[in-house]
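Re: [help] complex structure
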Amino acid sequence: MALATKKIPSAKLRSAAFKRVRADHSAELAGDYVEMIADLIDERGEARCTDIALRLGVANATVVKTLKRLQAAELITQEPYRAIFLTVEGWKMAEDGRRKHAIVEKFLLALGVSQETARIDSEGIEHHVSTETLRAMGKFLARNGG
Amino acid sequence: MALATKKIPSAKLRSAAFKRVRADHSAELAGDYVEMIADLIDERGEARCTDIALRLGVANATVVKTLKRLQAAELITQEPYRAIFLTVEGWKMAEDGRRKHAIVEKFLLALGVSQETARIDSEGIEHHVSTETLRAMGKFLARNGG
DNA sequence: CCTAAAGTTTAGCATAGGCTAAGTTATATG
DNA sequence: CATATAACTTAGCCTATGCTAAACTTTAGG
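Output below.
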């Protein structure tokens, strides 16, 4: 199996990686939203449009539009002018994101980067680490007092 | 300075991370293209639309459209129906990308993930690692026989 | 040198994810 | 309890990134 891996992967193999990245990107926004909604619910009992917009650094209208997509994807539920709730599926995704995020951030800290950088970089990286890489990071943490 | 870092960063600080991620994303595609063009030029002397499309796993027309943006950004030069060339700026970006990519991929391998996973994950991660994290990965490699 | 195949471009469409401006609903306060 | 303010929504715009189908160039073979 390992022997079959060529030094220069075929175009098909290459393109698979880029396709994964593109797929990651479309899932990414949804992940950020549900994670943030979960945080807001935990921190202050409810998630409101304005808080999400503020934390993400985007306009209110952008949040509204995105929330519609999330509702269509059955990750959240909402009534007009009311707070936002996560569906079971939404909570699952949020928990998963938090888990990943925590591991990546702790890993970066253990690797020796500053708190600030760990926080910022983990936000971007978390959506692109496979289960295998995440496990490797976990092992590294176990070895290095994570 | 470090003392000023609160445990729960303010919304403003949080939003900065997401803004960075969004900025990364717009730069990402350009990076992938110039890196691939550089590879094609090195491997076979010239970069053609079709090869880029094949390797990225997108339609030909998509590549054409993107190349127009890259030309507007002065990263490439091209004449109709001719091969694609990189500008000085384009080469700089490509080299930078390759350097990052190589470090991240080697780092993942050193961390213990499979070749296949390292290749795929590094493609997504490379655009989200700051200079500081990259340096930390470099140090790790130096310590662990990279 | 003519023509068929391969490669490139254009046109037109869709969706995602941004924005501002204007309208609507809830809520807090005098 | 009336209304000002804050929060939310709608409408309409833009760019990026994908697609297919059709048109145009280049190039290779006969």
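The longest strand of chain B covers residues 76-78.
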